[in-house]
């Protein structure tokens, strides 16, 4: 077998290296061609993700409120129902005078009439099956109450459907003390007398603002007081209209 001359051997080696380099260059060119749009898409995706996460880090609300209530009086008329009493279903009518020191904190004075009520099924049953006044069970009958409450409204936002901005709202809680006026059975249980009891008040409410001076008011609340013989805890749901006076 004949041997290749060293010059031919080097030439063949250089040709192999040249082919390998050409193949690598072609491969890298193909990668660069396909990587360019992919990199562009990746960069666009990264930009979108960065914008999304930056928006997630922003405060839910900033700037001045569209409907402000700070340093303003709110006058509210509320109509409600108290379905928790055993003997009567009350339909309270309440008038509130509420002053907001800030957007969150305020003080509210409330007066409520409770004379409008309907007998419950139990009350009708008791009336039908008691034969004499002496043996008749006399129920507690609330007539009205007055209360003073501190208010705290930490939540404010807007509600939308799709992309339509429909309105603003706030939500808060309140608590305080008051006095309830009632016709209560005396200790003998044979007659009722007019009585006044101290009470505690706790509840939550929400305003749905339509205008700077007009809002719909929703409330759920409870009161509790000790009558002659037992504790009474009326629970109330109400719907009202609030009018906001100009800022002081």
- Count of the separate structural domains: 2
Would you identify the regions where 5 or more consecutive residues have pLDDT less than 50?
Answer: none
- State Rg: 38 Å
CATH class of the largest domain: Mainly Beta
Overall pLDDT confidence: 80
Helix content: 10-25%
Q: What structural category do the secondary elements indicate?
A: alpha+beta
Going by CATH, the architecture of the largest domain would be Beta Barrel
Summarize the structure.
This protein has 248 residues and is α+β, with helices and mostly antiparallel strands.
Structural commentary:
The protein contains two helices and eleven strands. With 248 residues, it is an alpha+beta fold. It has two domains: 1-58; 72-244, Porin (Beta Barrel). The radius of gyration is 38 Å and the shape is elongated. It starts with 5 loop residues before the first helix and ends with a strand. The model has no long low-confidence stretch (mean pLDDT 80).
List the helices and strands and how they pair.
Elements: H1 6-57, E1 72-81, E2 88-90, E3 93-100, E4 105-113, E5 117-119, H2 121-129, E6 141-161, E7 164-185, E8 192-211, E9 214-226, E10 231-232, E11 235-244
Antiparallel strand pairs: 1-3, 1-11, 2-5, 3-4, 4-6, 6-7, 7-8, 8-9, 9-10, 9-11
Considering the chains and any ligands shown, give keywords for the structure.
248 residues, Porin, 2 domains, eight-stranded antiparallel beta barrel, two-stranded antiparallel sheet, 11 strands, 49% strand, elongated
């Amino acid at each position: 077998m004949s041997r290749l001359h060293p010059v031919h051997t080097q030439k063949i080696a250089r040709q192999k290296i040249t082919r390998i380099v050409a193949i690598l260059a072609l491969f890298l060119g193909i990668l660069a061609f396909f990587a360019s749009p992919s990199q562009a898409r990746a960069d666009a995706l990264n930009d979108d993700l960065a914008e999304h996460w930056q928006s997630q880090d922003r405060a839910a609300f900033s700037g001045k409120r569209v409907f402000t209530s700070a340093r303003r009086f709110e006058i509210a008329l509320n109509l409600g129902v108290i379905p928790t009493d055993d003997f009567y279903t009350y339909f309270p009518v309440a008038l509130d005078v509420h002053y907001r020191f800030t957007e969150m904190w305020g003080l509210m004075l409330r007066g409520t009439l409770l004379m409008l009520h309907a007998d419950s099924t139990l009350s009708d049953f008791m009336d039908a099956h008691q034969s004499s006044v002496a043996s008749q069970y006399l129920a507690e009958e609330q007539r009205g109450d007055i209360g003073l409450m501190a208010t705290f409204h930490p939540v404010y936002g807007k509600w939308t459907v799709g992309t339509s901005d429909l309105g603003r709202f706030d939500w808060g809680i309140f608590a305080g003390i008051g006095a309830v006026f009632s016709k209560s059975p005396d200790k003998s249980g044979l007659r009722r007398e007019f009585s006044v009891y101290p009470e505690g008040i706790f509840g939550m409410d929400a305003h749905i603002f339509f205008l700077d001076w007009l809002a719909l008011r929703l409330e759920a609340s409870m009161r509790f007081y000790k009558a002659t013989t037992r504790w009474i805890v009326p629970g109330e749901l109400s719907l009202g209209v609030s009018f906001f006076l100009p800022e002081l």
